[in-house]
Amino acid sequence: MTTKYIFFTGGVVSSVGKGVTAAAMGRLLKERGFSVAVQKLDPYINVDPGTMSPYQHGEVYVLDDGAETDLDLGHYERFIDVRLNKVCNVTTGQVYAEVISKERRGDYLGGTIQVIPHITNEIKRRIGLVGKTTGAEIVLVEVGGTVGDIESLPFLEAIRQLRSDLGRENTFYVHVTWLPWIGATEELKTKPTQHSVRELRSIGISPDMIVARSDHPVDESLREKIALFCDVERRAVVPMVTTSVLYEVPLLLEEAGVAELVLHRLGLEARTRPDWSDWKKLVERVRQPKPKVRIALVGKYVELHDAYMSVREALKHAALALGVEPEIHWVHSAELEKGKGWDQVVQADGILVPGGFGSRGIEGKIRAIHHARTQKVPYLGLCLGMQLMVVEFGRYVFGSDEVNSTEFDRSTPYPVIDLMPEQHGITDMGGTMRLGLYPCRLQPDTRARACYGVDVVEERHRHRFEFNNAFRDIFTQRGMVLSGLSPDGRLVEITEIADHPFMVGTQFHPEFLSRPNRPHPLFLGFMRAAAERAGVLETEKETVTNA
C-alpha cells in the first residue's frame, strides 16, 4: 500500500506533549495491524543532540544503529515497541550540512541555493526515507518546537508541500495545543488555540485534528467552540487532560475514537481488533498502592529529570513487574562532595549511578559506590556508573586514591579505565564514540547470566573509555567478576562484585531497551534486590554461585 503520513505540530507552548501523543497514536495504529514508524524533526542547528548538555535538551537517546537522537524517540520506542533507525531523527543542522555539501561539490550546477526549494526538498527527502528504510505503512512525523517559531518554518513548509506531493488521502495533520486555565475566572481559554491554528493556516496547513491539552476537564461547549473557530469537525477536537499515568494516554485516545477517525480520513480499515487488556492491566497496576523502595539516583544533572528519562522509566517498568513503587531520590553527586544529601544515600534500598561525561561530581559518585559496596546495598552502574565502580574497586585493591580513569586524570599511575585504542587521535566530539548495538557474551554462573537467562545479548553503547585489560587478573583475584565480555573476549562489558547481594555495572545503556510491559532484566534484578533489602519482597532462592 501507499505509505501514509501523519504530521504533528504544536501550539501555544512548548513541551505540550506532542511526542507522547504521537507515540500513543502510533500504538493505536499498531494495535490495528499496521506497521508504524515515527520521525522527529528538530529545528536546532546542532547536527544531533550528542554534543549538547543534558540541561539543554534532556537525555541523548541512542538507537541500534548508533544514532544519537532526541529523547522523544525513547517515547516512540517504549509506547509502540518498535526499533527505530537514524533517519527517524532529523535536525536543521543535518539538513543544511547536506545541502551545503552538495553545493560545494557542484551538484546544483551553479544554481542559487535557497530555503525553497533546496532546504524543503531535503527535508521531504528525509521524511520519505523513513518508510523506505523501516518498511512502515504509516509514518508519524513530529515537528519540534511551536508554531510561530522562526526556526520551524522550513519544516512546516515542507510538510505543507507534502499534502500536494502525496495527496490528501495520504496525509493527516494533528495540531497539539494547550488550553490555559485562568484562576481568577476559573475557566479554560480557547483563544490561544485559535491564534495558534490561525498562524498554522496562514502558512497553508489546516489541521485535520486538534488535541487540546489541559490540566482541567474540557466540556462539550469548549470542544464545539474550538471546532467552530478552528474549522475542524467537533469529533476531531480531542480533549487530552493531564494524567498521572503516562501510559494511560493510548487508552484515552482509544476512548476518544481517534484511530477510527484517522483511518477513515486515510482511506484505511483496521486489520485486527485492538486488544488493550494487557495495557489496561499495566495502567491499573500503576494506580494500585504499592510498597515503596527507595532508590538513590546519584547523578550530576538531577535538577532536570529529563536528563535521565529512560533510566527513570526503566526503574518504573521493573518495579511495576515486581509490584513495588520506586521512590527515586535525586542525589546531586557534586553536593555529596560537600557533605550534603548523604542521608538520601545512606537510607536508600538501592543505589544507581547513570551515565555522564566530565569530571564534575565524580568523587561524590565514587563515595556513593563505596557505600554500596561496603554496606552491601544493591547497586546498578550504567556506563560511567560501571567505570566509576571499577575505579572505586581499584582504590580498594591498591589502597590508593590515585586510582582513576584517564578521562579525569591522564597521569594516574593506576589507569583502570582508559581510552579505547580506536579513540586515540579523534578530535571531533560528535558521533565519534562507540555507538549503537553490540553483542555481549555472558559468563556462566554470574549474576548477569542469571538475570538475562541467555548466553549472548545485544545492548546499546555510548562511550569512549573502557576497562583497562592490564588490571583484569588482579581485579578478578580480589573479587570482581567480569561477567560480560565482547564475543572476542577483548572488551569488558559487565562487571559485578562476587561477595555482594547485587552489585552490577554495565558498559552499555540497558535503559534504552526497557519497555513498560517488558522490563529490562538487569533493572528487574536490581529492583528485586533493592525490594528485598527494603523488606517488601520475599528473598528469592540463590541461583548464582558468585553472590
From TrEMBL:
Q: Domain of life, per the record?
A: Bacteria
Query: Where exactly are the transmembrane stretches of this chain?
Result: none
> Where on this chain does UTP bind?
14, 189-194, 225
The UniProt catalytic activity note for this protein reads: UTP + NH4(+) + ATP = CTP + ADP + phosphate + 2 H(+); UTP + L-glutamine + ATP + H2O = CTP + L-glutamate + ADP + phosphate + 2 H(+); L-glutamine + H2O = L-glutamate + NH4(+)
Enzyme superclass (EC) = ligase
Its pathway, per UniProt, is: Pyrimidine metabolism; CTP biosynthesis via de novo pathway; CTP from UDP: step 2/2
Q: What are the protein's UniProt keywords?
A: ATP-binding, Glutamine amidotransferase, Ligase, Magnesium, Metal-binding, Nucleotide-binding, Pyrimidine biosynthesis
Q: Could you share any additional remarks the record makes about this protein? A: CTPSs have evolved a hybrid strategy for distinguishing between UTP and CTP. The overlapping regions of the product feedback inhibitory and substrate sites recognize a common feature in both compounds, the triphosphate moiety. To differentiate isosteric substrate and product pyrimidine rings, an additional pocket far from the expected kinase/ligase catalytic site, specifically recognizes the cytosine and ribose portions of the product inhibitor.
Record's protein name: CTP synthase
Species for this entry: Anaerolinea thermolimosa
Q: What is the lineage of its organism?
A: Bacteria, Bacillati, Chloroflexota, Anaerolineae, Anaerolineales
Which gene holds the coding sequence for this protein? Answer: pyrG
